[in-house]
């Protein structure tokens, strides 16, 4: 999908410094994006129509439909007029497993927890990333966030989308993906990472949004041991990151940030006791 399809230019009237002007503004597109497997729709997400193959791969991975790229045989995007149908053909054994899974589902939803019908599924056990031995300096943390801030062309145009980046120590950003939905941006990023033959353990996930439990779950499923955010986490996100052995850093502003879990991966200055 071309970058131009991800935005639209609309007329607007602005008032700034007491002056009213007619003009135009670039805004992000948002439309229903369906994911279909074996001819049946699994979920419909509202999202930005860009990087759809990455989105399909990442969504399939973080929702437990696949474990690797090898289990996807083909991805086809069909324009349905008011929305897009991303049709994914899986390896035969995965198609059979997904059919069996559907028979036990009350019905898919587009909230970032697709096909969930119980509390246990919503707070699922996340993969253990505690063995990842990556160590970052304070400057690495601020550098990763600064790199993401400077690599979001859609946000620069619209100021209305979330960004997710995968940052490699010593190399910088491997990939950045954007979307009106924060979960979507992270799914797109996960797809981009594994389509390039990389693993989550090789780098750091950086996001512009708040950290909900789903963001931690998806990061752990990708296999990353460090998640850095510009905004704040929820209490459940912190508990889940701790359970996974993930380093969770949030509220990153310039050189300032807060570490909530696994601080041993971050080399910082002496911690002041303010109790």
Strand content: 25-35%
List the strand order in the largest sheet: 9-8-10-11-12-13
Care to count the β-strands? 14
From the spread of the alpha carbons, the general shape counts as flat
Which CATH class of the largest domain? Alpha Beta
Q: CATH superfamily name of the largest domain?
A: Cytidine Deaminase, domain 2
Helix content: 25-40%
Mean pLDDT: 90
Distance between the termini: 53 Å
- Structural class label: alpha/beta
CATH topology type of the largest domain: Cytidine Deaminase, domain 2
Structure commentary:
It is built from eight helices and 14 strands. The chain is α/β, with parallel strands linked by helices and 275 residues long. The chain folds into two domains: 92 residues, Ubiquitin-like (UB roll) (Roll); 132 residues, Cytidine Deaminase, domain 2 (3-Layer(aba) Sandwich), CATH 3.40.140.10. The strands form four sheets. A six-stranded mixed β-sheet has the order 9-8-10-11-12-13. A four-stranded mixed β-sheet has the order 4-3-6-5. Helix 7 packs parallel to helix 8. The protein is flat.
Task: Offer a quick outline of the entry.
By secondary structure, the protein is α/β, with parallel strands linked by helices. It has 8 helices and 14 strands.
Keywords:
single chain, 275 residues, alpha/beta
Describe the secondary structure blueprint for this structure.
Blueprint: E1 7-16, E2 19-28, E3 31-37, E4 40-47, H1 52-62, E5 72-79, E6 84-90, H2 92-102, H3 119-122, E7 136-137, H4 138-149, H5 153-158, E8 162-168, E9 172-179, H6 182-195, E10 204-207, H7 213-222, E11 226-229, H8 235-244, E12 247-253, E13 256-261, E14 266-267
Parallel strand pairs: 3-6, 7-14, 10-11, 11-12
Antiparallel strand pairs: 1-2, 3-4, 5-6, 8-9, 8-10, 12-13
Helix pairs in contact: 1-6, 6-7, 7-8
């Amino acid at each position: 999908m071309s970058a131009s399809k991800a935005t639209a230019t609309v007329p607007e009237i602005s008032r700034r410094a007491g002056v009213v002007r007619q003009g135009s503004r670039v805004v992000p597109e948002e439309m229903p994006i369906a994911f279909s497997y074996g001819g049946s729709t699994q979920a419909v997400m509202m999202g930005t129509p860009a990087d759809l193959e990455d989105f399909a791969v990442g969504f399939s991975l973080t929702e437990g439909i696949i474990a690797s790229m090898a289990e996807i045989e083909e991805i086809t995007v069909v324009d349905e007029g008011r929305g897009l149908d991303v049709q994914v053909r899986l390896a035969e054994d995965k198609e059979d497993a997904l059919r069996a899974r559907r028979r036990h589902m009350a019905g898919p939803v587009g909230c970032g927890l697709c096909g969930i019908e119980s509390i246990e599924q919503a707070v699922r056990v996340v993969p253990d990333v505690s063995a990842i031995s990556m160590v970052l300096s304070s400057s690495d943390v601020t550098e990763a966030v600064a790199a993401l801030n400077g690599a979001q062309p859609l946000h620069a145009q619209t100021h209305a989308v979330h960004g997710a980046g995968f940052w490699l120590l010593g190399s910088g950003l491997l990939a950045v993906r954007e979307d009106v939905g924060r979960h979507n941006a992270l799914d797109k990023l996960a797809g981009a990472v594994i389509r390039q033959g990389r693993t989550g353990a090789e780098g750091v996930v950086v996001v512009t949004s708040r950290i909900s439990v789903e963001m931690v779950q998806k990061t752990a499923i990708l296999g990353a041991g460090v998640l850095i955010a510009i905004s704040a986490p929820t209490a459940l996100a912190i508990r889940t990151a701790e359970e996974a052995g993930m380093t969770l850093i949030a509220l990153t502003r310039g050189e300032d940030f807060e570490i909530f879990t696994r601080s041993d991966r971050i080399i910082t200055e002496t911690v002041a006791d303010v109790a």
